[in-house]
Amino acid sequence: xxxxxxxxxxxxxxxxxxxxxxxxxxxxxxxxxxxxxxxxxxxxxxxxxxxxxxxxxxxxxxxxxxxxxxxxxxxxxxxxxxxxxxxxxxxxxxxxxxxxxxxxxxxxxxxxxxxxxxxxxxxxxxxxxxxxxxxxxxxxxxxxxxxxxxxxxxxxxxxxxxxxxxxxxxxxxxxxxxxxxxxxxxxxxxxxxxxxxxxxxxxxxxxxxxxxxxxxxxxxxx
Length: 222
Known about the structure:
With 222 residues, the chain is of the alpha/beta class. Helix 1 (22-28) packs across helix 2 (33-54), helix 2 packs across helix 3 (60-74) and helix 3 (60-74) packs across helix 4 (81-90). The protein folds into two domains: 6-16 and 96-218, HAD superfamily/HAD-like (Rossmann fold); 18-93, DNA polymerase, domain 1 (Orthogonal Bundle). A six-stranded parallel β-sheet has the order 3-2-1-4-5-6, sandwiched between helices. The chain is built from eight helices and six strands. It has helices at residues 22-28, 33-54, 60-74, 81-90, 100-106, 120-129, 152-162, 176-185, and strands at residues 6-9, 112-116, 138-141, 169-173, 188-192, 208-210.
């Protein structure tokens, strides 16, 4: 097996807990916080796929706000732009998973990068607010391509920016659809399956399935 020359991470749900805003959602919309955060995330992803297929790109910050507005309307919540603004802003302060700082430190001899659907401003903010900016040599956004993962051109961007062959890049994501796209492209993929979810029949098999990021350094070929 080829040695690993770089590690590329998905951001949302992999490094950063998208449900860490649940407490704020619960404060703003009592008894509906969990339902809101889950529907919001589901629609956020759905809108990336739909807009890619339609060829009607809007950046991730816009889609995040649109998905939140839809989720609130769908759940019959009060029309409160100020509350939605606070929740959208909270995406810049998502909590990293507890093991993330140590996991990144253990991989530090290798170049580390983020490859995300997030807009550049959102990504810079969440990485800097978590104190993780020094760990990454690149923070790559789909914004310049104007299409979202799992389109192959997004994964090609990592190859081009890092100057590393696809089969020497370890790609890490908690989203199985993302892992599948990266695997089909030619990356060696690692699925962070914190919830014990089943695999999906997308024709792709990750190199390893891990319970959290702390396990990654033990399975990478170096």
